[in-house]
Amino acid sequence: MLKTFKKGGIHPPENKLSAGNPIQEMELPKVVYIPVSQHIGAPSTPLVKKGDKVKAGQLISKSSGFVSANIHSSVSGTVAKVDTIPDSFGYPKQGIVINVEGDEWEETIDRSPDLVRECSLTGPEIVQKIQDAGIVGMGGATFPTHVKLVPPRGMKAEMLLINGSECEPYLTSDHRLMLEKTEEVLVGTTLLMRAMGVEKALIGIENNKPDAISLMKEKARGYKGIEVVPLKGKYPQGGEKQLINAATGREVPSGALPISVGCVVSNVGSAFAVYEAVQKNKPLFERVVTVTGKSLEKPCNLKARIGTQVAELVAFAGGLPEDTGKVISGGPMMGKAVASLEVPVTKGTSGVLIMPEKEAGRGEHLVCIRCSRCVSVCPMGLEPYLLMTLAEKKIFDRLETERVMDCIECGSCSYTCPSNRPLLDYIRFGKANVGAIIRARKN
Amino acid sequence: MNMTILYTVITLGAIGSSAAVILYFVAQKFKVYEDPRIDEVEQALPGANCGGCGFAGCRAFADACVKEGDLSELYCPVGGNDCMSGVAKILGLDAVKKDPRVAVLRCNGTCEFRPKVNKYDGATTCHIIHATYSGDTGCQYGCLGCGDCCKVCDFDALHMDPVTGLPVVDEDKCTACGACVRECPKDLFELRKKLPKHRKIYVACRNEDKGPVNKKACAVACIGCSKCFKVCEYDAITMGNNLAFIDSDKCKFCRKCVPVCPTNAIIETGFPPRRVKEEESTQEKPVVNA
After folding, report:
1. CATH 3.40.50.11540-classified regions of chain A
2. Which of A267, A320, B108, B179 is the most exposed place for a label (fewest CB within 10 A)?
3. Cis ω for the linkage preceding A236 (within 30 of 0)
4. Closest alpha carbon to B144 in B207, B182, B178, B186
5. Which of B121, B207, B209 is most worth mutating to test chain A (most A CB atoms within 10 A of its CB)?
6. Which residues pair with B159 in a beta bridge?
7. Which one of B125, B126, B128 would you mutate to disrupt binding with A, by most A Cβ within 10 Å of its Cβ?
């Protein structure tokens, strides 16, 4: 029997429309909009000003702390302004706008497509290179990767887990990466293992991608310590705690980090970015984005520069269909609807999903019928109906004891609710408030 | 048969009277002295238990008034000066006099002035929208229109206007308890000095974006041009965060700032209509009906 995580989980229709379409290179945009905060943690500090000439790969915004990430120019050209621009969800945030002129890259970047396997760097050197390249978790959480690789004092990593499950419906960017850049992902995994000083790595792939499983298995034989683990298709298998549970059987305790059970989880996209950063000296300034939707003319997987407007990706995929009800940045479960198409692609944009009008609505919110479906699907073993009521009544101390901070915001509860109750909306509100209370208590 | 009834009455009577004696002595022994003036003060208060004074209710406020021995920090906004002078008389203290205030919504982003750019179908409370979403218009500082403020108003003074999508303050009912000020996640309500005939002059905007950005989002946004700041003779207007703010305590209601505002973000109400000059009326400005 195939492995999967124990508690809860759902299986929404997969709708992997673009799974068979190879990654296409997106043409260069005319202008890029690069927000200075594309990661969890402190926003970076811009280093350029209006009128500066930049090259692709040049550092334009420096990380402002340990939990922060560098940001590099994704194009060559002139800085038009450093001002408030919409971030990947449409909120006005500080960012850098660059007018594109030609396509000149930093000289240090190796632009050849040849695979480089050998690496003579030591672990800390690799971590430094990852930090310099501004690599963050590419699955959508955008947590700076170098922070994960250095375990807190007293803890030791035993193994690396690479998340290739891509449990979100519609998204296929990781799937395509595993098929087209198999060796690169494996080299990236080896580099991450060396950076952490571990001998073992597991790559979890859901069984709805049999081609990726067989290809990765075959190629992984040439790499020491890497094992491919086929997993049963279930959402949210890509969540770190769920993946650890599925692949190793270990359970991360409430409130603890994956490192407490000796695991570090990274995404396939991040592994590929690590390969490029370490072996090709290429900072993270482009990524694979799935542009998909049932009424879209050509669902596709695009390699786009960071800062390209979503409108351009949609135009490439055949333009915005007439019956569009919602445009979502990310997958249908964890993604967020964007307010306009003027938002840029950032490091965490795994997909752009266009939902037709008839599927986009959330339906009328009705009363709770106490069916407890939300409880049975919650992968963290929480009681979403209770959390929602507590958040509604603003009983934050009780919310904390009901472990609201364990919620991974996977949205399984809202998805499964027959009364269309906005469970996750309220839980997010509760989490934000409880989080603020906990932070205030610490200071 | 009759004896049974008699025994029952005697037994129960004995238990009852002995319990009464015990309870009497216990009550004497553990008696808590409470200042009788607390009851008196509580009687003088409005009894709305709204929390506008900063205490949990009228009883708690009365308790504080008696124990504090000084009324300079204590004020009941609902009862006002009359109520506080009554309290002061009971306690033999001096009450502070404050100008009566009224809640004012500092946003005029109606459906007409602030067009909707997307549709929201999540949970309909302002706090959730504030925590998870940037709003269904281009302005992320303005009113979200779910009426959380109306729900917390204990005096029935706030109602949503279905046409504009904004809450409307009923100034006759508003007691300036401040519940809406505390509730609004966008911090749009302000307690301003109450004048006769509902006269008010205020900047109805909280958008901190730069002029070109917020003008695109809302036709009546304050663009921070400082024209009103320059024209004010009483130092009542301050500029900050691309916004003008009129201090209602310093404002002399000369109304000079209102016509100079290029976006009509400054609202005047309760004044007689002014004579319109020819050249002014030709300028294109959004018409504001407050």
Report:
1. 123-279
2. A320
3. yes
4. B186
5. B121
6. B168
7. B128
Alpha-helix runs per DSSP H in A100-181: 123-132, 145-149, 173-180
Give CATH 3.10.20.600 domain extents, chain A.
Answer: 23-109+283-359
Supply angle C-alpha A295, A291, A377, rounded to 5.
Answer: 85
What are the E-state strand segments in A165-320? 200-206, 226-231, 263-267, 286-292, 300-305
Q: List chain B domain ranges.
A: 36-91, 101-282
Pair B247, B239: CB distance under 8 Å: no
Instruction: Say which CATH superfamily domain B36-91 falls into.
Output: Electron transport complex subunit B, putative Fe-S cluster (1.10.15.40)
Q: What ipTM goes with this model?
A: 0.76
Residues of A in contact with B134 (CB under 8 A): 89-91, 339
Which parts of chain B have pLDDT scores under 70?
Answer: 1, 276-290
d(CA A345, CA A326): 17
Residues in A closer than 8 angstroms to B121, CB to CB, are 361-362
Is the pLDDT at A73 greater than 90? The verdict is yes
CA-based end-to-end distance of chain A = 48
pLDDT in tens, A210-239: 999 999 999 999 998 999 999 999 999 999
Yes or no, beta carbons of B140 and A432 under 8 Å apart: no
The CATH number, out of the four listed (3.40.50.360, 3.10.20.600, 3.30.420.10, 3.20.20.150), of the domain defined by the range A23-109+283-359: 3.10.20.600
**Touching A: B residues 205-264, CB under 8 Å:** 209-210, 213
B118 and chain A in contact, CB less than 8 A: yes
| Closest CB from B117, B118, B127 relative to A429 | B127
Residues belonging to chain A with any Cβ–Cβ distance to chain B shorter than 8 Å = 84, 89-92, 337, 339-340, 361-362, 365, 422, 425-426, 428-429, 432
How far is the alpha carbon of B137 from chain A, nearest alpha carbon, in Å?
9
Measure CB to CB from residue B132 to each of A340, A362, A429 and give the nearest one.
A429
Which of A51-60, A428-437, B60-69 has the lowest average pLDDT? B60-69
Nearest to B117 among A340, A429, A432 (CB): A340
> In one letter, which amino acid is A285?
F
With pLDDT > 70 as the criterion, what percentage of chain A qualifies?
A: 100
At the top level of CATH, the class of B101-282 is alpha beta
* Record: contact B209-A84, CB cut-off 8 A: yes
Quickly list H helices, chain B: 2-29, 36-44, 58-68, 80-91, 126-132, 148-152, 179-183, 211-217, 227-231, 257-260, 278-282
Q: Is beta strand B167-169 parallel, antiparallel or unpaired with respect to A31-35?
A: unpaired
Residues of B with Cβ-Cβ distance to A420 under 8 angstroms: none
Flag if B118 and A361 touch (Cβ within 8 Å).
no
pLDDT tens-digit readout, A381-412: 999 999 999 999 999 999 999 999 999 999 99
* CATH 3.40.50.11540 is right for the domain spanning A123-279: yes
Stretch A171-193: mean pLDDT, rounded? 93
